[in-house]
């Protein structure tokens, strides 16, 4: 209970800072439409006759187009402005939801996923860039946590329940929820007014020239992006295929609830931890936790006819902790690696790591499951996640986010700080 007044004031400042309410509402509506279709668009393709590889290609195309859009967003903000960029992004993300009802043909589903990916790319880069513009660098941990909660909250509710809703209430309900980003146009306009005069990445060296010095400006962002790539490969695999890899619908629902629920809490709480202790003490434990969770999930789905409830729940919960925590910490590290003028490019690179990982996870597990089994596919994904451990242990040169205590106390900090 110590420092309660100061903590309360800080919390109010985060949630009520100028521009933050509009950003959080925009984020919540946008990610609601994205989250509800993430597991159900592949399921809709399966209803139309697609196999596991075809189903995996739906989210792979979604993320490929997301990444392509993300590379263009900083330029779009500079040339077209925040208003046009944000509104176009929300329309592109929400409008393709309802046309799914016309057909479950894989080609059409892939085309709609491509359009949604363009909108999602705009939303993700603009949202993260806005956090950097609205809040000074010394206080970004908690705002990043609040922004992460606005993302993870809809995912907690909708990713886990969407497959059940599609099968029991009808795909019409799911696709209607998928159009929610259209309601985000109004907060997008309010946020754009606040951000006018802040062209993200306007003076960023990589865009200013093509020299080796310009390219070198991206190098500090490579480490957080690769760490993020490792954990989002895991998350993308489980979110895309949980309804198909489990023989028990109750276990599937519970597993997705644990995955998205622990990710929501983890992404939120690690914001405060990053402000207090720095990011480094927590990176390597979260990589190990993610790999362990995938291994347990692989064990749970070894038998296609009998899903192991206990290892599935434990595995998805562990992956959720790593999935949420590493999202927050790598975003903080990405912003810390560049100056404020380059926050737009830092946001774009971070989001490319996030969405490329989600797409790789969907595509890799889909093809491996078709050729062998979901169990083997998850073990390969665990190995890929664990391969990022050296990056988590490496000391970032000149880092201002280090804490003087020994790195092996990271787990202790995590436990005690969550209990405070």
Short description:
Helices cover 79% and strands 0% of the residues. It is mostly helical. α10 (219-245) packs parallel to α14 (343-371) and α11 (249-277) crosses α17 (410-419).
Structure notes:
By secondary structure, this protein is mainly alpha-helical. Helix content is 79%, strand content 0%. It has 17 helices and no strands. It has helices at 4-16, 20-47, 52-94, 106-134, 141-168, 171-178, 185-195, 205-208, 212-216, 219-245, 249-277, 280-300, 309-336, 343-371, 374-386, 389-393, 410-419. α3 (52-94) packs across α4 and α12 runs antiparallel to α15. The longest helix is centred in the first third of the chain and has 43 residues, at 52-94. The radius of gyration is 20 Å and the shape is globular.
Summarize the helices and strands and which ones pair or pack:
Blueprint: H1 4-16, H2 20-47, H3 52-94, H4 106-134, H5 141-168, H6 171-178, H7 185-195, H8 205-208, H9 212-216, H10 219-245, H11 249-277, H12 280-300, H13 309-336, H14 343-371, H15 374-386, H16 389-393, H17 410-419
Helix content: over 70%
SS summary, helix count? 17
User: Beta-sheet strand percentage?
Assistant: under 5%
General shape: globular
Order of helices and strands: HHHHHHHHHHHHHHHHH
Biggest β-sheet, characterized? none
What's the total count of β strands? 0
């Amino acid at each position: 209970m110590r420092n309660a007044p100061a903590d309360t004031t800080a919390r109010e400042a985060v949630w009520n800072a100028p521009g933050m309410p509009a950003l959080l509402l925009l984020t919540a509506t946008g990610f609601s439409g994205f989250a509800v279709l993430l597991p159900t668009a592949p399921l809709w393709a399966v209803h139309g006759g697609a196999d596991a590889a075809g189903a995996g290609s739906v989210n792979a195309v979604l993320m490929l187009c997301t990444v392509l859009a993300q590379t263009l967003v900083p330029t779009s903000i500079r040339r077209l402005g925040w208003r046009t960029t944000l509104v176009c992004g929300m329309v592109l993300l929400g409008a393709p939801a309802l046309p799914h009802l016309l057909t479950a043909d894989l080609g059409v589903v892939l085309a709609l996923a491509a359009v949604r990916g363009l909108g999602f790319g705009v939303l993700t880069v603009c949202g993260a860039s806005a956090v950097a513009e609205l809040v000074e660098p010394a206080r970004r941990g908690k705002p990043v946590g609040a922004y992460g909660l606005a993302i993870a909250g809809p995912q907690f509710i909708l990713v886990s329940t969407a497959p059940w809703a599609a099968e029991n209430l009808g795909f019409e309900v799911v696709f209607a929820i998928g159009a929610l980003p259209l309601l985000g146009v109004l907060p997008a306009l309010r946020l754009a007014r606040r951000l006018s005069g802040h062209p993200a990445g306007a003076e960023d060296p990589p865009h200013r020239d093509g020299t080796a010095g310009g390219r070198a400006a991206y190098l500090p962002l490579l480490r957080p992006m690769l760490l993020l790539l490792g954990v989002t490969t895991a998350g993308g695999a489980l979110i895309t295929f949980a309804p198909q890899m489990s023989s028990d619908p109750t276990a599937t629902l519970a597993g997705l609830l644990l995955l998205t629920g622990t990710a929501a809490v983890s992404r939120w709480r690690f914001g405060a931890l990053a402000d207090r202790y720095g990011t480094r003490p927590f990176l390597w434990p979260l990589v190990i936790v993610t790999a362990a969770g995938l291994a347990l999930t692989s064990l749970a789905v070894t038998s296609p006819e009998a899903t192991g409830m206990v290892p599935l729940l434990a595995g998805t919960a562990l992956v959720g902790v790593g999935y949420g925590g590493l999202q927050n910490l790598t975003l903080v590290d990405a912003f810390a690696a560049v100056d404020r003028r380059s926050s737009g490019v830092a946001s774009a690179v971070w989001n490319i790591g996030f969405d490329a990982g989600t797409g790789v996870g969907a595509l890799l597990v889909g093809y491996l499951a078709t050729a062998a089994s979901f169990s083997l596919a998850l073990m390969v994904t665990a190995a890929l996640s664990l391969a990022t451990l050296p990056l988590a242990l490496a000391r970032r040169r000149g880092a201002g986010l280090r804490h003087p205590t020994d790195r092996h106390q990271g787990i202790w900090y995590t436990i005690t700080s969550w209990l405070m």
